[in-house]
Amino acid sequence: xxxxxxxxxxxxxxxxxxxxxxxxxxxxxxxxxxxxxxxxxxxxxxxxxxxxxxxxxxxxxxxxxxxxxxxxxxxxxxxxxxxxxxxxxxxxxxxxxxxxxxxxxxxxxxxxxxxxxxxxxxxxxxxxxxxxxxxxxxxxxxxxxxxxxxxxxxxxxxxxxxxxxxxxxxxxxxxxxxxxxxxxxxxxxxxxxxxxxxxxx
Length: 201
Prior knowledge:
- This protein is α+β, with helices and mostly antiparallel strands.
- Strands 2-1-3-5-4 form a 5-stranded antiparallel β-sheet, with helices on one face.
- It has 2 domains: 8-88 and 189-199, Ribosomal protein S4/S9, N-terminal domain (Ribosomal Protein S4 Delta 41, Chain A, domain 1, Orthogonal Bundle); 93-179, Structural Genomics Hypothetical 15.5 Kd Protein In mrcA-pckA Intergenic Region, Chain A (Roll), CATH 3.10.290.10.
- Helix 4 (65-76) crosses helix 5 (82-91) and helix 6 crosses helix 7.
- It has 9 helices and 5 strands; from the N terminus they run αααααααβββαββα.
- Strand 4 and strand 5 form a beta hairpin.
């Protein structure tokens, strides 16, 4: 399945945001990448800012253009604020929820766990990272996957209190998707209204 596999520090510097997790390069070089990163400071057009925000959201959630557009269309067709709906649906992806539960340290690692059939949803193996969770869905690890050292190192009993829309039982290694989060609960620094304006043109 297609996904971005290029350098993460370059993208983090482009948006001046550690969207792939902690980034040492961003701390040392807090300016855009490239030969003229330090010196060139062009005033961005409205379209450029909107496009940049869409790209930032795509990289953050690990979604390519076709998938992202489909999620936007779904969000626009639902009752409520389109931008809020967009982020809610992105947060409800299986790979993102595995990351939010603390089973994996990054969304990339969470995507790999899902793709390699380590994760179950409602007792059934799910290997599609973009699987859309519904309120009440139970997320767990396959029995043989619970002993993976990397997974055990990442899981923390504190994860359940970090986000109100999910809960995690560290003793059973079982999580639950309680409901779609409100925009105020989503910590990502994304200006979703600019994305809505871009697609509305």
